[in-house]
Amino acid sequence: IANHEARKPKSPSVISMSLSAAYSVSLNNAAKKGVEAGLHVVSAAGNEDADACTRSPASANKAGTTSPHAITVGASTLDDKEASFSNWGACVDILAPGQLLVSATNQDNTGTQTLTGTSMAAPLVSGTLAKMLQAFPTLTPEGAKAQLNSLVQKKNIAVKSGKGTTGGL
Predict the structure, then answer these.
(1) Concatenated DSSP letters for 105-151?
(2) Measured between alpha carbons, how far is 14 from 137 in angstroms, rounded to an integer?
(3) Bridge-partner residues for 104, per DSSP?
(4) Nearest to residue 47, comparing CAs of 119, 139, 126?
(5) Each residue of 106-151: pLDDT tens digit?
(6) Which pTM does this prediction carry?
């Protein structure tokens, strides 16, 4: 964050936080500080089939807060449903594909592996956001979030909390 603040002129940057931990003030503050510094922060919602507002850094995105916050990403399935493992609730901003995605492996330079989780969904949103910022580099984090939400396909998805939500896929 300090390096980003020191750069003149500032160029848009995206932080992709593919992690989920028990509620942590420190982790939430790190995400909030990044957004307040003008960075575009994307966070995985977590894979515990629980309220994302009980996890960090997803809980840095609590509904009703007045400060800007990260874009928190839940996972959808191959058939555009909310994934059974994905965390859910008011702290989730958007759903993205998170099932059976081919990724690089750390075993060698050319291998691949198939993975599932919100830590796979969040980088898809991070990459989309980075491409969007290439075209619109002056978007603020809140403006970029609004622009991203205006571009996604909206579907009415029943979340595990029993409430309907409009999630982007």
Answers:
(1) -SSSSS-EEEE-SHHHHHHHHHHHHHHHHHH-TT--HHHHHHHHHHH
(2) 11
(3) 112
(4) 119
(5) 899 999 999 999 999 999 999 999 999 999 998 888 888 888 877 7
(6) 0.84
